[in-house]
Amino acid sequence: MTDPLTDPRALNLLAAQPDAVDALGQRCTLLACQAHDTSSGVRGAAGAAQWTGDAADTFRRWATKLPGQLDQMYSAYSAASDAPDTYGINLVELKQRIQTLVGELTSARSALGTAQSAMADAQQTLTQASIQQVIVGGLPGPGAGSQAPSPTRRMRPTPPAGQSIVLRGRSTRSSSRRYGCSMSSTPSAARPRTD
What we know:
Layout: H1 8-15, H2 18-46, H3 54-63, H4 66-137, H5 173-179
């Protein structure tokens, strides 16, 4: 399907001037009237009794063909004058419909552009939220689908196997046991040997 905003047929219809079509019909009517009047005048001159002689006889022989040709012109221009009238009326209606369609299509394209822009913004926001979720909550572990840690809860690092973490400012055994920490200020792996 072609785009009505760039289709040459639609552009030609939009560029068409109904007044020019009307003027063409009037011109055809004028030419039909002139052919009729000329035909009547030639017939009248050929029948004039006061003109005599060789020139008059030659003119009369010639004039018998001309009125018939002028009558054909009259018929053709009369028929041609009716076509632009009908076409002009249809052209005005069709042009109005195309202009309405162009306006609706332009509005629809604008609305589509706005919707696409909003969708792109929403996708970007969703991507940023997903990235923020990964930064705050970490990547999902092997139990995918488990609940991510709350971003307000402070995450505690897990020590490698065989090591413990010393929490500063914790002096009670209960807190040491609770967090799996030793009471010393230096991790056991970093203590100097006393051999």
